[in-house]
Hints:
Blueprint: H1 2-5, H2 8-18, E1 22-23, H3 36-60, H4 77-98, H5 106-124, H6 126-131, H7 138-146, H8 156-174, H9 178-198, H10 221-231, H11 233-242, H12 244-268, H13 281-308, E2 309-310, H14 314-319, H15 323-333, H16 345-379, H17 388-443, E3 449-455, E4 465-474, E5 478-483, E6 485-486, E7 489-490, H18 505-518, H19 521-525, E8 527-528, H20 542-548, H21 552-555, E9 557-559, H22 561-565, E10 576-577, E11 579-580, E12 589-593, E13 599-605, E14 611-612, E15 616-620
Parallel strand pairs: 6-9
Antiparallel strand pairs: 1-2, 3-4, 4-5, 5-15, 7-14, 8-15, 9-10, 11-12, 12-13
Helix pairs in contact: 2-3, 3-4, 3-15, 3-16, 4-10, 4-13, 5-8, 5-15, 5-16, 7-17, 8-9, 9-10, 12-13, 15-16, 16-17
Amino acid sequence: xxxxxxxxxxxxxxxxxxxxxxxxxxxxxxxxxxxxxxxxxxxxxxxxxxxxxxxxxxxxxxxxxxxxxxxxxxxxxxxxxxxxxxxxxxxxxxxxxxxxxxxxxxxxxxxxxxxxxxxxxxxxxxxxxxxxxxxxxxxxxxxxxxxxxxxxxxxxxxxxxxxxxxxxxxxxxxxxxxxxxxxxxxxxxxxxxxxxxxxxxxxxxxxxxxxxxxxxxxxxxxxxxxxxxxxxxxxxxxxxxxxxxxxxxxxxxxxxxxxxxxxxxxxxxxxxxxxxxxxxxxxxxxxxxxxxxxxxxxxxxxxxxxxxxxxxxxxxxxxxxxxxxxxxxxxxxxxxxxxxxxxxxxxxxxxxxxxxxxxxxxxxxxxxxxxxxxxxxxxxxxxxxxxxxxxxxxxxxxxxxxxxxxxxxxxxxxxxxxxxxxxxxxxxxxxxxxxxxxxxxxxxxxxxxxxxxxxxxxxxxxxxxxxxxxxxxxxxxxxxxxxxxxxxxxxxxxxxxxxxxxxxxxxxxxxxxxxxxxxxxxxxxxxxxxxxxxxxxxxxxxxxxxxxxxxxxxxxxxxxxxxxxxxxxxxxxxxxxxxxxxxxxxxxxxxxxxxxxxxxxxxxxxxxxxxxxxxxxxxxxxxxx
Length: 625
């Protein structure tokens, strides 16, 4: 029943949107449709839609768990961001065409109203970023303040809009041919889309680097569409009016079809086929095309609707003054909510929506005050009729702004210093650590413990820890290392079918994420492929394990705090885990070592998700000259 009650929230947004709306008479259209007020009111609804989208993603695990009708909201995020992108592009071109000297003061006027709330929310997100372990040093702290890394991942939209505004200004200011300027700007939009498509997802602890995720680019095309609609508005309007009776129902049917198509394509392909040996570009491109089609069709349908219906009421006008702040701040109001059932979902939705609204109102008030001070400082003109109060206010304004400039310069300098120190730490610090690892490897004997690579083994500590390995075989020029702990739990193969290790999901994980994420470039240069499997990171086979004749202490696997948290299989108080071995024959069961340290066959199906993973690697003993 609770799942159906959640539908009250999207219905409430629709009621507020349509409350007091004006509908044109038959055969007529609204005056001045697609106006500034129309766009702002629709962006308010879109901002609240984004909040519902993110909340629904939480409770449905990104659509994997059915929570009734509300589940559909997990698929609608790109539609809401399409509204923002379209009206941003459309508004720029209409203003350029209709306002004299529009580019004069453009950078200051348009960018400041976006940059101030962006910087303020960056500061507000610092504490959660540190609490979550995403900020672990001063360099991360500084880059997060300036937004070079995003603790607020919803701020990706602001980054793109700021870039588009900047290129818009440069193109139309310095390119005389307006058509060439428009082509330049649209080309830049496609360059942004291509950049996001080519980059892989951000798997770092920060998880806030630019353009690392499909949400950065799957609805961006609407900015270009908005530019074209703004440029050729009169021609487009004539076509839409002439064929409205056919286009309106056709657009609804096209939207439904595109929505179903996009969902099927995303399920069949998607953006997550990327590995370190294959970027999954064909799957990404197919999914992107389906999503761009959906966004364009949706926006066309919405534009046709707004030709007949004007959404305008007191609540929308009030909320339109803080829609950007609402978009930026709502993630902070969701920070304390996860997949756990600590709070009824209905209450969680309500608390988040109300909390985000209140926070956005206060943030908007602060933004306006700061912008007013900056505008006052920038104008700074006093005439002979200026009152003493006005002069005193102007002096205070100058004092405050100068102090702010000094603080900004100091922070910028600190950012540069942190960047240099961080670069030094990466190049020198990592090299020294690597040298220590090689010394341990060269001196190691069978049964001893060495460190090689990094992994997050303890979620209670910031950053990653040194990976510990047991030397299980020593040769003249190399040593075979077995992970001391079961690092995490994973399937042998996610599908319940007969599978050999060569074609298994666990091998795909180890040869990609295992090889490229656990080890630095220098460490990878000293690793050697296993003669049996041909892989650099692999599982031992039962035959290898028997030949090694390891002691029970080594065979019994303990897990790490992170492995325990991730749900790895454990038996008894000692927290021992059974762990997977390499099976070269196709079978429904994967070979394992039990929690008692015994090799076993036919006990665990390949799709058991909690089997421990103890990778093995070969490392050269001789240091590079």
